[in-house]
Amino acid sequence: MNESTLMLSSREGDLVKVTLLPEELRTPEDCYDLRNEMIAASTGCRAVLIDFANVTFMSSVGLLSFLGLRRAVAERDVRIIFFNLSDNLDAMLTLCRLISDSPHSKAPFETAKDEAAAVAQAS
């Protein structure tokens, strides 16, 4: 595990699990630092599983953290799966078309209910 005030990460084979630590992803400094930490943690993986259990609020700058990660791993076809999303975050990400529950709609991020479902989905 790494030492950070923004996230914890662990690796199991080619899966990386990121646990977000702040309740709010609001400031540009924190969001850009988070993006950089997630990119560094994702080196050599095929899926990044991101746990939102601690997050209650995310600003538009927070969205950029995840879009930056998406851009950084796009050429390697790395899947990014969000799990433990609050209802409010789920609604916001759906409205922004960053996630979708429809198999006919392509979105940059996938979602799962919990960690076990995210691991199963990534396998």
From TrEMBL:
Pfam families: STAS. Residues 1-120 form the STAS domain. The lineage of its organism: Bacteria, Pseudomonadati, Planctomycetota, Planctomycetia, Pirellulales. Keywords: Membrane, Transmembrane, Transmembrane helix. The chain crosses the membrane at residues 47-69. The keyword Membrane applies. The keyword Cytoplasm does not apply. InterPro entries: STAS_dom (IPR002645), STAS_dom_sf (IPR036513). This is STAS domain-containing protein.
